[in-house]
Amino acid sequence: MTEQPPGLAAADLYTDEFAADPYPALARLRRDAPVCPVSSPRFDSYLITRFDDASAALTDPRLSKDLYGPGRQYLRIFGPNSEGLNKNMLNADPPEHSRLRRLVSQAFAPRRIEALRPRVQRIVDDLLDKIVPLGQAELMRDFAIPLPMTVICELLGVPVADHDRVLEWTQVIRTSGSSRRPPEQERAAVQEAQAWLHGYLADLVRAKRARPDDAMVSALIEACDSGGKLSEAELVTTTFLLLFAGHQTTADFLGNAVVALLTHPAQLALLRADPELLPAAVEELLRFDGPLPVASPRIATEDLDLRGVRVPAGSIVGVALNAANHDPAQFVDPDRLDLRRERGPHLGFGHGVHYCLGVSLARMEARIAIGSLLRRLPGLRLGVPVDRLRRLPAASPFRGLLELPVRFTL
């Protein structure tokens, strides 16, 4: 093994400049230190940035997702109050992961998701009906966030009266680090939100057990009761994973996609002129600026040699999906948005056994949302210069916008 390359400190990456445009810094890492020790405000890790290395890491059984096993790595990553929500299939290895995913995957069968299309279109239309007469909107608050939140709440069976409260608490977690409050107050707010969501979801599971319906939580309870395959705690943590993953990345993707299109007017005009490009456009927009810059953490179960760098057992390893998706060894002119790009594999939905379970729903929501926005908001443009857009902090596990002011022609 070679000697370890110099590490990167938080000051090197986790800046406002990096949050605005991380791709030049990621290109330097890809070129000079494709496996690099990184010190972040949340935890230290080794960051993988090249496409081939990233694809291999996402399927390497020596890189465990079991954060709650020996070593209890979740304490470093999520904090002491996270186990009630985060001990789920995202943070598990086979066969445990396989057992949990098999139960949940039935609810995301393509035929069932396709049956949701009219309802998703109705939600989109209702949101746009409120926006269209105004000539302007804050698109994250008014559209990108409430759309997937409403869809996943309905899918899970969250009562309509509770949607706003659930949204409020999930946004506390999503926007952590973006306020000017002292760090201890920020941590307290997140812990309060986690505690509230855990209590709420536990109550929801009990309510569905007492009065089942045709929503997903009831289906999970039935699987638990008929086969003993899900514990009560797993019902709660699985519901949280579906709730959070089911709206967070889609909301952030929609914001990123709109900014990408509005800052590439030739590509926007191309899509307006040829709506048949929409499926390919969604894939290219996800490759170009995805909402999950680094895959959820993995733990080295033994000493590893990754591209000549020694990664000690117990180290956290991050796979930089957005860096891999801009690798010139995989994509021609990768920093160019090209909606007619020849379709090729990207890592926006992950890879391997943890490939995004909700990919069919995410694609369907994205296609309906972007198509409807372009059709119903003529002359759509940014309401502020692109360099004044407020983004999630660079230390966030998500890449997205806090606000997206837009204007359009009435």
From TrEMBL:
Keywords: Heme, Iron, Metal-binding, Monooxygenase, Oxidoreductase. InterPro entries: Cyt_P450, Cyt_P450_B, Cyt_P450_CS, Cyt_P450_sf. Pfam families: p450. Coiled coil: none annotated. It comes from the Bacteria. Belongs to the cytochrome P450 family. This is Cytochrome P450. It comes from Micromonospora zhanjiangensis.
